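Holo prediction. Input below; ligand is 6-hydroxymethylpterin-diphosphate.
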Amino acid sequence: MKLCCRTRVLDLSSPVVMGVINLTPDSFSDGGRHTSADRCSERIDALVEEGAAIIDLGAESTRPGARAIGSHEQLARLMPALERALATSLIVSVDTSDPLVIDEALRAGAHLVNDVRALRRPGAIEAVARHGAAACLMHMRGEPDTMQHDPRYADVVGEVAAYLAERAQACVDAGIGRDSLVIDPGFGFGKTLEHNLALLEALPRLGELGLPVLAGLSRKAIVGAITGRPPGERLAGSVALAIVAVLRGACIVRAHDVAATVDALRVVAATGVGGRT
Ligand code: HH2
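Structure of the complex:
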């Protein structure tokens, strides 16, 4: 499998890591750590060194209860980091739902739009199609400020799969190539621990949609609920979940701790366990 991201093609024949850089003061695990230009540059260099395939730049926190911010504030955070990231050979992703931010970031050369709202805001799909960029379509139930208030599903796996299939079809209808799409069940976005575990188990079913699957489990509440640890102490739990996700067919793992995740996936691949790796 491969992912066409404008001028770059990402080989997904073995799993790859998307390294997170949150340019936000309030992200749940790394907020405020990469907001200065120097710290951000160091982090970009570290992601290259540690073996990430994708750099995901986030200008707006989507943690439960997060405050929404305007396009101009997002762009002011994003653009200097974007320029620096584009100077590397990695795929550069922008984590945003804002159509204006999407358009400006793609104008500047970003390769991939990672949207927790699956390009649902008016103008978002068109901007991605116009620039021939790639997109990661994530499932979220509700909005960040309320999504963890008693989320309910009759059939979480079926509903998430149907939503992602519908969003992928909307993208194809708007002119985005199927080989430029990634899907993501959105762990922790309007889901209880039981919902998250059901989706993790059902990753092979999401893979049947024929699109690469991304799993974002790093440092999330799912790890905290199982281990009882705060975000800064969830490395081992996050790496374990990354391995499980890959063994169940995920092609891209979104991670804060890139070196550890890359090493773990390399070791798993070397053992031949799981077949595809
Ligand atoms: N999770 C977060 C943000 N963006 N994108 C995708 N595709 N999948 C995810 O699971 C995902 C995501 C939340 O994590 P983080 O960016 O670390 O925190 P915050 O939203 O507080 O910035």
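Residues 20, 22, 24, 27-29, 58, 61-63, 95, 114, 116, 136, 138, 184, 186-187, 214, 216, 254 surround 6-hydroxymethylpterin-diphosphate (CB under 6 Å). That is the main takeaway for now.
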